[in-house]
Design goal:
With about 260 residues, the chain is of the alpha+beta class. Helix content is about 45%, strand content about 20%. A hairpin with a 6-residue loop joins strand 6 and strand 7.
Length: about 260
């Protein structure tokens, strides 16, 4: 993902930050795993550096190698089980995600804000046979790319959102549709309508609608989204889906406070 790359740091990135880049990249590969070369490419790190970090992480149990492909290791599972007591919100959201999928026939997801990215925590497939297959549990996107990240970005404090938009270049990986000017326009539309729309900008023909979930301070920290094919996301239906997402996001926010 673009926001996890080390490019442009002029060698100033710390070892801890490099480890974080590597772990997030391996995690984004999900069950399929990834190669050393792919980790180097996706993080922007030199291949020898990526290999050394992966080897050291494997020695500590944080990653594992199976048939030449790296995956997250057992030590992360143990640490994650401890952290889940504080950070896991999926139990409170799964019934809402499932209800959205059942009511709409589309695939529904919960994505959480993590730094300058969103990570998908939970999903439920809808009954409609054609699906977008863009989102899955564990996948990460920079803010402003998928509909969930756009919904969160648009509802961050204006100075924080402006700083992100001014310092982040998504065009290298995601193309001119994610230029700063285009992002600012979509942010304004999201602020006006309350919900975000991704008109097939990640994968052509795959649309998404999302609404932010707020914590007790009024800060967006996650988002509910629906994804599907363009024929299902008509101009008439998108506002209906948007209002439904806003309603469920409000309910989830109240539940988690």
């Amino acid at each position: 993902m673009e926001s996890t790359r080390a490019e442009g740091t002029n060698g100033g990135i710390s070892v801890v930050a490099k480890v974080g880049l590597v772990l997030r990249t391996v995690g984004a590969a999900a069950a399929a795993g990834t190669t050393t070369s792919a980790v180097a490419r996706d993080t922007g790190l030199p291949r020898p550096t990526a290999h050394r970090l992966l080897t050291d992480l494997a020695a500590q149990g944080f990653v594992d190698r199976d048939r030449g492909r790296w995956q997250l290791g057992p030590e992360l599972f143990l640490l994650g089980a401890v952290a889940a007591a504080r950070y896991d919100v999926t139990d409170q959201a799964r019934d809402i995600v499932a209800d959205l999928a059942e009511q709409t026939g589309e695939s529904a997801f919960l994505s959480a804000l993590r730094g300058r990215e969103t990570v998908c925590l939970a999903g439920c497939e809808g009954s409609f046979p054609l699906r977008s297959h863009v989102l899955h549990e564990g996948i990460r996107f920079p803010l402003g790319v998928a509909s969930a990240g756009l919904a969160i970005l648009a509802h961050l404090p204006p100075t924080e959102a402006d700083d992100y938009l001014s310092t982040t270049d998504l065009t290298t990986r995601w193309g001119p549709a994610h230029s700063r000017r285009a992002l600012r326009s979509r942010v304004e539309h999201t602020r006006t309508g309350g919900y975000a729309v991704n008109p097939g900008l990640v994968v052509e023909g795959s649309w998404g609608v999302a609404a932010a979930v707020f914590d007790r301070t009024g800060r967006p920290r996650s988002a509910l989204s629906l994804t599907g094919v363009r024929s299902r996301f008509t101009d008439e239906r998108i506002p209906v889906l948007g209002r439904m997402l806003l309603d469920r996001a409000h309910a989830l926010g109240r539940r988690e406070r």
